[in-house]
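Sequence in, structure out.
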Amino acid sequence: MKLHYDFKKTLIALSAAILLGTGVAGGEDVPGLSLTIAVASGQQAASQTDQKTQKELQALVAGVKEGSLLAYYVRDKVSNPQDTISFSGKGFVFKDYKSFAAKFKALKGPSSPQPGNLPKGFTLATAIIYPPAVANDSELYLQLEQELKAAAAAGNSNKQLFSKIISWNQTNLSMQLYAKGKANFSIVTGSPPAKLPEGAVPFVRASETKKELTVNGRKVVLTTDSAKDASFNTKLVWLDNSGTIQYTLSDNRASTLATNEMLAVAKTIIK
């Protein structure tokens, strides 16, 4: 087996796009679509097949409208050995908090409070409501899997990619990004990560320092990272009263915000 570089690069780029509010929902490497390409029948033939599917997938993703979700199935035992379906979606993107908050009223999911005590010069750069992730044991997934595989079974034997556009009205992830030049900090609101199996130890970078604080009566985990390759300087994580919504407040490496400034913002969100 050998990875086809162009196909791999395209899929990773599509996956990363969700961070900008324009791309893939459901996993870092487009779940269900393996990056391995068979060479048993000739690398050139495999490459031609990959390029055709790649272009078709790119066109499908580019055509997804804001607030829509694309479900797709690749009928190929080599590139999709687990025979699963995948998803790509575009979230709602806003430049002002009023529009961002108004959209939440029409959606199901945890809303994201507007922060106060903004450090001098920082303003809202963008706010994003992301498409929902579709669990592979959910009713929606099973329904779409049945539909797409039925279409594949009845379709042209030379066709590899089958898809369907669906709308969504609930979310479990949103972000607000506040910026001042290259410096920024974000507020991410979403579901807490799944609990680790009993006995498992969470991974912690050697450059990280963690501390528990109490802010407005709520436990907050403060993490700082001194490594040059770190994605943040300071990160604050806490749960709401019900324990079902997690808030993450973090800055980027270009930021020079002090911990006290970050805590001042957090205090206006934690009620």
